[in-house]
Specification:
Radius of gyration: 22 Å
Keywords: FAD, Flavoprotein, Oxidoreductase
Family: Belongs to the MSOX/MTOX family.
Number of helices: 14
Protein name: FAD dependent oxidoreductase domain-containing protein
Structural class: alpha+beta
Number of strands: 26
Mean pLDDT: 94
InterPro entries: FAD-dep_OxRdtase, FAD/NAD-bd_sf, MTOX
CATH superfamily of the domain at 6-62 and 185-255 and 393-445: FAD/NAD(P)-binding domain
Helix content: 25-40%
Strand order of the largest sheet: 6-7-5-15-16-17-14-23
Organism: Penicillium egyptiacum
Shape: globular
CATH architecture of the domain at 6-62 and 185-255 and 393-445: 3-Layer(bba) Sandwich
Bound molecules: flavin-adenine dinucleotide
Length: about 500
C-alpha cells in the first residue's frame, strides 16, 4: 500500500487511536471518525463518554501465564507507557486540560489473588514465563518468603497483602506483577489523541459527521464510508475499530466476536476515611481475584483515584443484550445509561442503569470478607456501570482483512485485555495492513478465524433465551444500590 494512500479508521477507542498514531507516524494520510464528541467529553465516563476505553483506570500487567506473545507485547507497551509519562512530565506533550503533573501510567503493580491455599497453575506459569524471558524477580509470590523479602526491600510489603489478610490470621495467595499497575484511562486516551493529531492524523467527531452510516462499495471492494451527515469519504483502506459495536455493524463477525457486558461499581472513599491512605496507589496495587473461577469469581479492582473512587468490577458472568436485527438475526448490542433508544438506525432497547444482582452479590461477599472496613464505615456504591467488552470465542484479538471485502480491515476483539496496548497495538495493525512480519505468533492468533472442534473460551451468540441475556437475569435498580450500604443490601 502506498504511503500517500488515505486510510479511514472508524472508532477512536484504543484500537482506533493507536492505529491512527502509528499510521500517521509512517506517513499515511489518516482520518478517524467517531460518533462521540471526545473533544468535549474528554473520554470521561462521567461526561457521557461511552466506550470500553472511556474509563478512569485499567489494569496493566506483563504476566500472561504461558502466553508469551501477549507477555512480549506487554513488555513492549510498558516501555512506552514509561516514555509517555516522561514525555508528559517534561512538558513536551501536554494535551488540553492536562498538566505535566499528570501521569498516564501508575506503576503500582498488579496482584493476581486467589482464594486457593496454593498458587494456581496460571500464576505459577506467570512466574515461569517472566523468568524464562529474563524478567527476573519481577513476579513476587506472596507464599514465597524470599519474594516477600524482596518486596520488603522494595517497599512493596503492603502491595503483597493489599487486603491485610495476615492481620486476620490468613495467608494471602497470589503473585504481584511488579512491572504492572494501571493506566489512567481517560487521560491516556487524551494523550494518544493529542500525539496522533501532532503527527498529522485528522479526527472527525460527532453523532452526524463522525458516525459511520454505511460502507461504500465498488463491486466487492470497499472504497470508503458514508457518514450520518450524508457525506461520502473515500479511502484505499477502511479499518473498523468500533469496539463492541463492530459485530453489530459487520454481520460477518457472527460467531467470532460478540458484545458482552461487565459490571463495574464505584465506591467513593471520603478523604477523612481511614481507608484513604491505605487504598491510595502508593500503598495499594491493582488486583484481580479468582479470575478463573467462573461466575463465582472474576473480580478486579484498583486503588482509589484522586477523586476518591475505588473501582471494583465483576466479569464472572459475561452478560449479553441480544436484539433482533434487520436480517432477522439476534446480536448482542451494547446498551448503557448513555444509550439512546435507537442508534445508527438500529434498535438497541432502552438505556440501562440497572446492575445484575449476581454481580452485586459476588462483589458484596468479596468486600465483606476482604475489606470489612468498608462495611464498618457504611460506605455506599456511588455509581454502577455496565461496560461493554468485545469478546472473541478464544479471547485473542481480531486484527485482519475482512475475507471477501477488499479494502476493509477490522481491529477489534479486545476481549477484556487490550487497553494496556494503547501505546503499541497500532504499530501491529499497520504491519498487518502492510502484510509485514505476518509470521509472528501474535499476528497469527489475531487472524480472521472460525471456531473449529475446540472448546471455545467464550460461548458466543446464545441469544435472547440464553442464561446470560440481560433480559433473563435479576437486576438491582441503581437507586436501590445508592440507598443501601455497599455491604448490606
Ligand atoms: C469494564 C471493562 C474493563 C476492562 N479492563 C481492562 C483492563 O483492566 N486492562 C486492559 O488492558 N483492558 C481492559 N479492558 C479491555 C479494554 O478496555 C478494551 O479491550 C479496549 O478499550 C477496547 O477498545 P476498542 O477501541 O476496541 O473499543 P472502544 O473503546 O469501545 O471504542 C470503540 C469506539 O467506536 C466508536 N463507534 C462505534 N460505532 C461507531 C460508528 N457507527 N461510527 C463511528 N464511531 C463508532 C465508539 O464511539 C467508540 O469510541 C476492559 C474492558 C471493559 C469493558
Amino acid at each position: 500500500m502506498e504511503q500517500a494512500s488515505s486510510i479511514i479508521v472508524v472508532g477512536a477507542g484504543i484500537f482506533g487511536l493507536s492505529t491512527a498514531l502509528h499510521l500517521a507516524r509512517r506517513g499515511y494520510s489518516v482520518t478517524v471518525f467517531d460518533r462521540q464528541p471526545y473533544d468535549e467529553s474528554r473520554y470521561s465516563y462521567f461526561q457521557g463518554a461511552d466506550a470500553a476505553s472511556a474509563d478512569i483506570n485499567k489494569i496493566i500487567r506483563s504476566a500472561y501465564g504461558g502466553q508469551a506473545e501477549y507477555q512480549e507485547l506487554s513488555t513492549e507497551a510498558i516501555t512506552t507507557w514509561h516514555e509517555w509519562n516522561a514525555e508528559l512530565a517534561s512538558g513536551q506533550t501536554v494535551p488540553p486540560g492536562m498538566s505535566s503533573r499528570d501521569q498516564v501510567f501508575v506503576p503500582n503493580g498488579n496482584i493476581s489473588l486467589s482464594s486457593d491455599t496454593e498458587l494456581p497453575t496460571w500464576e505459577l506459569a506467570c512466574i515461569e514465563g517472566m523468568e524464562k524471558a529474563g524478567h527476573h524477580n519481577t513476579q513476587l509470590a506472596t507464599t514465597n518468603p524470599y519474594h516477600c523479602d524482596l518486596a520488603a526491600d522494595r517497599a512493596l510489603s503492603s502491595h503483597m497483602d493489599p487486603f491485610q489478610q495476615r492481620s486476620r490470621g490468613k495467608q494471602p495467595v497470589g503473585v504481584l506483577d511488579t512491572t504492572g499497575g494501571m493506566a489512567i484511562a481517560d487521560k491516556a486516551c487524551r494523550f494518544a489523541l493529542h500525539k496522533a493529531r501532532a503527527v498529522g492524523a485528522r479526527f472527525v467527531f460527532g453523532s452526524k459527521a463522525g458516525c459511520l452510516q454505511s460502507l461504500c462499495y465498488e463491486g466487492r471492494k470497499v472504497t470508503g464510508i458514508i457518514t450520518r451527515d450524508g457525506h461520502m469519504h473515500n479511502a484505499s483502506m477502511t479499518i473498523l475499530a468500533c469496539g463492541a459495536v463492530t459485530p453489530v455493524l459487520l454481520p460477518e463477525l457472527d460467531g467470532l466476536c460478540e458484545a458482552t457486558a461487565g459490571s463495574v461499581m464505584l465506591i467513593k472513599i471520603p478523604t477523612k476515611s481511614q481507608l484513604w491512605e491505605r487504598l491510595g496507589p502508593e500503598n495499594f496495587p491493582t488486583f484481580t481475584f479468582n479470575v478463573r473461577a467462573g461466575s463465582a469469581g472474576g473480580l478486579y479492582g484498583f486503588p482509589r483515584n484522586e477523586d476518591g473512587y475505588f473501582k471494583i468490577g465483576y466479569r464472572g458472568t459475561k452478560y449479553t443484550n441480544p436484539i433482533r436485527h434487520r436480517d432477522g438475526k439476534e446480536r448482542s448490542t451494547p446498551v448503557t445509561r448513555w444509550s439512546k433508544a435507537e442508534r445508527d438506525g438500529m434498535p438497541i432497547g432502552t438505556h440501562l442503569t440497572d446492575f445484575p444482582r449476581q454481580a452485586f452479590r459476588v462483589i458484596q461477599s468479596f468486600l465483606d470478607e476482604y475489606l470489612p472496613e468498608l462495611q464498618k464505615e457504611g460506605t455506599q456504591a456511588t455509581t454502577t456501570r455496565i461496560c461493554w467488552y468485545t469478546d472473541t470465542f478464544d479471547n485473542h484479538f481480531l486484527i485482519d482483512r475482512v475475507p471477501g471485502k477488499e479494502g476493509l480491515m477490522v481491529a477489534t476483539g479486545g476481549s477484556g485485555h487490550a487497553f494496556k496496548y494503547l501505546p503499541n497495538i497500532g504499530n501491529w495493525v499497520v504491519d498487518i495492513m502492510e502484510n509485514s512480519k505476518m509470521d509472528r505468533p501474535a499476528v497469527q492468533a489475531w487472524r480472521w478465524r472460525t471456531l473449529g472442534k475446540e472448546q471455545p473460551v467464550n460461548h458466543l451468540m446464545q441469544g435472547s433465551h440464553g442464561p446470560r441475556a440481560l433480559g433473563n437475569i435479576a437486576v438491582h435498580k441503581e437507586s436501590e444500590l445508592k440507598q443501601a450500604s455497599v455491604t448490606r443490601l
